[in-house]
Design a protein that fits this description.
- Mean pLDDT is 82; it is low at 182-198.
- The chain has two domains: 14-108; 110-181, Gyrase A, domain 2, CATH 3.30.1360.
- Strands 1-2-4-3 form a four-stranded antiparallel sheet.
- The radius of gyration is 51 Å and the shape is rod-shaped.
- With 198 residues, it is of the alpha+beta class.
- It is built from four helices and four strands.
- Helix 1 crosses helix 4 and helix 2 (97-108) packs across helix 3 (134-146).
């Protein structure tokens, strides 16, 4: 006798296909989830590594900034010390300037010329005195021009003595001191250096 299958095979086949489809879909979803999870872990690891490198670089930059600040401070201190040393050298070289000025004036003033007043303001000298003759004043001007320390002699006036019996004429002369600008600058710069020392 022939075998006849009376069971609903088409419905069973459809259920089998649905079951396989759901299995494949579930496996695909799980694989996708695992793949995304692994990719996420990899990227998080790379981000963490880059963050650590950034922190390391930031710390090193801070250290270098501190060293640069220290170097700048040292450079400023070095400049201040060099300025003070140069000022000390200038003052050391010019400590006898007053004596040298008096010596140069004494050598420049000829016989017959008498100084009654000597004033010094910065690099300028003012000579007030009496002279027996104009020739002697000319000698004084010539000697001042030839002096290494004195320069730019300028005779402001010559006037005869107010007394008729006096043979001396009054004069007023201006001179400049050569090489005094450095000393004057040193005097001006010493005050801030003292203030900085406090």
């Amino acid at each position: 006798m022939a075998y006849i299958n009376l069971l609903p095979w088409r419905e069973a086949a459809r259920k089998e296909q649905q079951k396989q489809y759901l299995t494949v879909l579930t496996a695909t979803a799980v694989m996708s989830f695992l793949l995304m999870f692994l990719v996420n872990i990899a990227y998080n690891a790379r981000i963490d590594g880059q963050t650590q490198r950034n922190r390391y670089l930031e710390n090193e930059i801070k250290v270098l900034d501190q060293r640069i600040a220290e170097i700048r401070t040292l450079n400023d201190t070095k400049k201040n010390l060099q300025q003070r040393m140069s000022l000390i050298e200038q003052l050391q070289g010019s400590r006898n300037l007053g004596t040298q000025i008096m010596d140069a004036i004494a050598k420049s003033v000829p016989a017959g010329v008498y100084l009654t007043q000597l004033e010094k303001k910065g690099t300028a000298l003012l000579l007030i005195g009496k002279s027996e003759s104009n020739n002697r004043l000319s000698n004084l001007l010539r000697e001042a021009e030839e002096s290494e320390l004195l320069s730019s002699p300028l005779l402001e006036f010559i006037e005869a003595g107010k007394d008729n019996t006096s043979l001396l004429s009054n004069f007023k002369m201006h001179l400049k001191v050569e090489g005094y600008e450095a000393v004057q600058g040193a005097d001006a710069a010493v005050t801030p250096a003292k203030g900085g020392a406090k």
